[in-house]
Amino acid sequence: MIIGVPKEIKLDEYRVAMLPVGVEELTRRGHKVLIEQGAGLGSGLADHDYLENGCEMVDEAAEIFARADMIVKVKEPMPAEWSLIRPGQIVFTYFHFAADRELTEAILATNCTAVAYETLADDQGRLPLLTPMSEVAGRMSIQEGAKYLERPQMGRGILLGGVPGVAPAWITVLGGGVVGANAAKIAAGFHANVSILDINMDRLRYLDDVMPPNVDVLFSDRHTIRKQLERADLVVGAVLIPGAKAPRLVEREDLKRMQPGSVIIDVAIDQGGCIETSKPTSHSNPTYIVDDVLHYCVTNMPGAVGRTSTYALCNVTLPYVIQIAQQGIDTAAQASKPIARAINMQAGKVTNQAVAETFELPCADLFAKK
Ligand SMILES: NC(=O)C1=CN([C@@H]2O[C@H](COP(=O)(O)OP(=O)(O)OC[C@H]3O[C@@H](n4cnc5c(N)ncnc54)[C@H](O)[C@@H]3O)[C@@H](O)[C@H]2O)C=CC1
Ligand SMILES: CC(=O)C(=O)O
Ligand SMILES: [Mg+2]
Fold first, then answer.
1. Sign of the four-CA dihedral 143, 136, 127, 201
2. Dihedral sign for Cα atoms in the order 266, 271, 274, 276
3. Which residues constitute the catalytic centre (predicted)?
4. Residue 266 CA: which ligand 1 atom is closest?
5. Would residue 275 count as lying in a domain?
6. Same domain, 243 and 202
7. Among residues 200, 270, 290, 365, which one has the fewest Cβ atoms lying within 10 Å of its Cβ?
8. Whether residue 142 has pLDDT greater than 80
9. 369 pLDDT above the threshold of 90
10. Interior angle at CA 186, CA 180 and CA 190, nearest 5
11. For 283, what's the count of Cα atoms within 13 Å in the CB-facing half-sphere?
């Protein structure tokens, strides 16, 4: 198979979808890997690192899309890439379709096979290709929150950990999955007062066992969330229903309960966000203020720490890239339920139930006779 890795073109995206070891492993198995010149530079990976491992370096993304059987990317295809995708081509990347109707319609129209990292689920419901980036974003949410609580950044002027004689910050984490647990752990390390909320009782019991004493584990309902907002200096949005639009947990009117200068970091923005007033932002222009509350809604948080994130992402994607390259997508999907669950679209049809429901589109059976 020919596997193509274009340079990421989303604003401030410094990750790349393959490490030199990926080139080595794929070429060793007889595949050809095309890497766009400069694709790894944002993550500190030089062209020669890839060339030494047997890739073909290509000048233009258009050539990669024209030649590759499978495109391996990090972020959803940008409009400039949509017309380059070919019918039947496998595109393996984050898509987050539920957040973006225009993207959904554009990718459907390409007739490609869209294999989404974020819905590749194992039999326990875990999301192995989302997890490492959620670990990054969860940890980052607290360092970003700490920064934007500083007064020169328009925050309340609060130090997360306080000092002897002055209380630490209150932090509310909505959703206790991977993002939420990582946020809570780092926030607790700063000595902040942390509450983490979820609706999954088994998850709450687990968090109660593993979290330090300065983390309260609470059931997530509207009443408790609104109470939390009254004292929270920092709110982290970290909920997910896989494939679907994020549930909205905070309405615009609820912002009035928050103190001026408090900060919301809505990590769930890539699935549409869990705060009514959230809208996607970029690392270059990450924040805006609504009703005196600072919002940070960057859709590719891990992109800013490309060196860490590229390694964390590629470590987990490579085995699936190899399996799809070895078997082809149809056989790989028959052999691997996680891969089948990752296929969101094929031949112009949506094959993921949550994406179909979001846009009221029919959901096709992946294994229906073609
Ligand atoms: N902005 C960015 O750069 C990044 C965003 N993300 C996003 O962060 C979000 C969270 O991801 P993960 O933590 O990996 O998901 P996860 O599946 O590990 O955790 C989500 C949690 O939300 C909980 N939940 C669902 N509905 C809820 C409700 N009404 N109230 C409280 N909790 C609720 C679930 O029970 C689950 O424990 C996803 O949308 C993911 O794509 C992840 C990485 C980077
Ligand atoms: C998960 C995601 O959206 C990201 O890593 O950018
Ligand atoms: Mg988008």
1. negative
2. positive
3. 96, 270
4. 1
5. yes
6. yes
7. 365
8. yes
9. no
10. 135
11. 15
**Structure tokens that stand for 354 in this block:** 């949550």
Range of the domain at 32: 2-119+305-358
Give the integer Cα–Cα distance in Å for 343 and 212: 38
Å from CA of 27 to ligand 3 middle: 33
| Closest ligand 2 atom, residue 13 Cα | 6
**In the chain, how many domains are there?**
2
Rounded to two decimals, the ipTM of the complex is: 0.98
Task: Give the mutation target among 14, 75, 97 for probing the ligand 2 site: most ligand atoms within 8 A of CB.
Answer: 75
Answer whether residue 10 is part of any domain: yes
Task: Flag whether pLDDT at 370 surpasses 70.
Answer: no
Structure-block tokens of residue 365: 């059976």
Asked whether residue 321 is domain-assigned, the answer is: yes
Q: Whole-angstrom Cα distance, residue 191 to residue 56?
A: 50
Among 119, 129, 179, say which to mutate for ligand 1: greatest number of ligand atoms within 8 Å of CB.
179
- Listed in sequence order, the DSSP H helices in 160-200 are 178-189
Same domain, 230 and 254: yes
Q: Please indicate, yes or no, if residue 14 is contained in any of the structural domains.
A: yes
